[in-house]
């Protein structure tokens, strides 16, 4: 497996952000960041220890602190589903966590993020190390085990973030976990009504938080397609293509 296939890269950069948004006042933006810090200080430890409802409460509090509204459309996935979504921003994970009980598959360096990494690990996140292709079978097995146990898992198969209308190809490897576990695959389109939500290029998490806080009102819309039920021995590549095709136009156009 080549490095380019295993470590996908995005061509998206700062040009994705068109600047066409209504700004919050400087005081309001600063207040949002301050409230966010308070939410994290008070909520990370309980969420990591208790998981479940406490984690969803933390995710909802993060979105509320930043003035982000969520909209869900479509059927609610049943427990033990593999949720596969396009990837625009770090907010994607928070929005999914606020609405659904699902363990995210995250890149391995998230585990080292202060506070957030430990909470994610204790809350059941599954970490994938894209620098070690030989570790992939173990990750597939870990996801399959979670699905068999009735836990939903949230996956971003593009492997990195893309700026809305542009998308990367869904990587098929972790779809094998749904086939092995006999679990339904639920495609979820994630879209924003402002390009300021994009988390691309050389962005840091802190820069993105400040940028989101400056948007007067931001809405993230999540649209679930009907569940796909792979047959035993199904082709994971065909399953990945079908899941991505079901998303239609994702990114910013969904929430426009």
TrEMBL record:
Q: Does the keyword Transmembrane apply?
A: yes
* Coiled coil regions, renumbered to chain: none
Q: Where is the Phospholipid/glycerol acyltransferase domain?
A: 81-193
Classify the source by domain of life: Bacteria
Q: In which pathway does it act?
A: Lipid metabolism
> Is the keyword Nucleus in the record?
no
Q: Which residue spans traverse the membrane?
A: 24-47
Q: Which InterPro entries match?
A: Plipid/glycerol_acylTrfase
Q: Write out the entry's keywords from A to Z.
A: Acyltransferase, Lipid biosynthesis, Lipid metabolism, Membrane, Transferase, Transmembrane, Transmembrane helix
SMART domains in the record, alphabetically? PlsC
- What is the protein name stated in its UniProt record? Phospholipid/glycerol acyltransferase domain-containing protein
């Amino acid at each position: 497996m080549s490095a380019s296939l295993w470590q996908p890269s995005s061509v998206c950069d700062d040009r994705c952000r068109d600047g066409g948004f209504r700004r919050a006042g400087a005081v309001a933006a600063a207040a949002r960041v301050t409230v966010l810090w308070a939410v994290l200080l008070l909520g990370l430890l309980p969420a990591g220890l208790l998981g479940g409802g406490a984690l969803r409460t933390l995710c909802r509090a993060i979105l509320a602190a930043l003035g982000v509204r969520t909209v869900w459309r479509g059927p609610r996935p049943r427990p033990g589903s593999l949720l596969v979504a396009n990837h625009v921003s770090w907010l994607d994970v928070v929005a999914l966590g606020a609405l659904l009980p699902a363990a995210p598959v995250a890149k391995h360096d998230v585990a080292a993020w202060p506070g957030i990494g430990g909470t994610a690990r204790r809350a059941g996140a599954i970490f994938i190390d894209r620098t070690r292709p030989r570790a992939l079978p173990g990750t597939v097995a870990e996801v399959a085990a979670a699905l068999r146990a009735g836990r939903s898992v949230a996956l971003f198969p593009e492997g990195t973030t893309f700026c809305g209308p542009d998308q990367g190809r869904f990587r098929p490897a972790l779809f094998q976990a749904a086939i092995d576990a006999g679990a339904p695959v639920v495609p979820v389109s994630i879209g924003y009504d402002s390009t300021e939500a994009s988390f691309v290029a050389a962005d840091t998490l802190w820069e993105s938080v400040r940028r989101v806080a400056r948007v007067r009102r931001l809405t993230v819309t999540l649209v679930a397609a009907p569940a796909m039920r792979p047959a035993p021995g199904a082709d994971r590549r065909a399953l990945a293509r079908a899941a991505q095709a079901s998303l239609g136009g994702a990114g910013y156009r969904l929430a426009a």
